[in-house]
Amino acid sequence: MPAYFGIINMIKMFLIFAAMNGALAVVLGAFGAHALKQSLSVLALQTWHTAVQYHFVHVLALLFVGLLLKVTRPLLPGKVAGVAFMLGILLFSGSLYGLALSGSTWLGPITPLGGLCLIVGWIALFVQIWRMQP
Fold it and tell me: Which of 19, 52, 77, 85 could make an SS bond with 29 (beta carbons 3.0 to 4.6 A apart)?
């Protein structure tokens, strides 16, 4: 029985993270479009826009994973997909937000790690769907 509740808690975590980050992506998108427009370079604004775009897309992907796992049998690949999307959002978009604001080059190597997490998330989602019962 505890394993069952662990799965439910993981699904709920995915859905809560997606909902909260959906709101955050809207706020950060608006912040970039209005408040940062005058203070950042064109390149930094493009970086910010990329971060917001990937943030939104992967929030929707995570929301899909959470809902999919809620209505089907949650297999390990589905759980991996959810965790990978969460880490990818934090590392990929988070590092780009930081890079745009600070210009710190040490954040640069973090971005590809986040991108790798996003790729792993999509592959794991594929495997989850492939293994689903018809």
Answer: 52
